[in-house]
Structure formats: C-alpha cells, structure tokens
Amino acid sequence: MNTTTPDRGRPTNRLLLFGTLLSWCAALLLLRFVRSGSVAMGFLVWNLFLATIPAVAAWFFARAMTKGSSLIEQIVWFAVWLVFLPNAPYIITDFVHLTPRPGIPLWYDTALLISCAGTGLLLGYTSIADVQAVVTRRFSAVMGWLLVIAAVLLSGFGVYLGRFLRWNSWDTLTNPRQLFFEIGDRLINPLSHPQTFGVTAIYGVGLFLGYVALRFWQPATD
By the 8 A CB rule, do 25 and 111 touch? Predict the structure, then answer.
C-alpha cells in the first residue's frame, strides 16, 4: 500500500462504499423503530450525520490544496475538518447506551452499534488519510504523520469533551467562551483533571494504532 496517498482517483467507489454502509445503518435503525414502536437509538442518525462532516470537509480541503485555492478557503475547510473530526470516533462511546430493552434483543442493538461505530471510524480515518496525503505532498512525510498524531490526540480530547462534559462541535460557534474556559482550566490545572488526560491518551493512542493498521495493512498475494 502507498502510505502517503490514499485512493483519491476513484471518488465513485468511495461514495458507493460509504453510501452502502450508511444505508445499512439506516436500515437497521428503521427496522428497530418499526419493531419497537419507539425512536430509542434515534440519536445515532444525528451522530452519523456529524461523522460525515469531517469526511466531506477533508475532501474539500484536499481539493482546495490541490487546485491552489485561496489560503482562506484552505484554512476554513481545514478548521471544519479538525473541529468536527471527533464526531467520527465519538460513536464508539455510544455503547454506554447498550442495555436490554423490551421488544429488542440485545444482540440486535449490539449489531446496530457496531455498524454505526465502524462506519463512523472509517469516515474519520478516510478524512485523516485525505488530509495527510495533501500535507505530505505540500510539505513532507514527517509533517503528514505529525498532523495525524495531533489529529487523533485532539480527537481523543474531543471525545472526552463530548461524552463527559457534553460539549459538541457546534459550541465552538455558539458558546466559545465557556468552552474555551473549560479547555483552558484543564490545560492550566492538569493534575486536577486526571480523567481528561486519561481519556484523551487512551482514545488518542487507540485511534492512532487503528489508523496505522489500516494504512499499512496489505492483502496477501500469491
């Protein structure tokens, strides 16, 4: 596998892949709604939508970089990608909602969450690969991998902000002052917030190892 440039030459294949994955998740959710008569787990629809934003933003960022668009356009798409990136792996934490519910087998909800979490992860990893590729071409392979490390650690921190403090990406626009206060307090007083750095490190390292495994894995050939 080429570890510096993802397959950007076949966008139709990518759309087909993610369209299939998202359709599968939607079918599982719809069947659950009909069978249970409730919209429990409906939050997964919104979470999957948020997970697609970094993938779309990364594609536009890569396109802007490749075509030499204005610096402002490049910065905007990069910022959107980075701010919304934690939404992709965040779906993993939705397993906290896995509990027996009347009328729905536990195995079904397990399959539903695995499908949604896996789709979210792939959307996130694809977006990271896109950004890494253009940064590598513009600067160097080292810069590309440094960006990956920073992105997954920030994603781990974003997962913490979302799951434990209940912040979301939109708050960077709607309530930035309080959000930055929360972040600043944890940076200034790290020893007072061990959970912050524990969650960030565990999720960040886990996401990085998963990304590296996907980037370097190659199918066996005869």
Answer: no
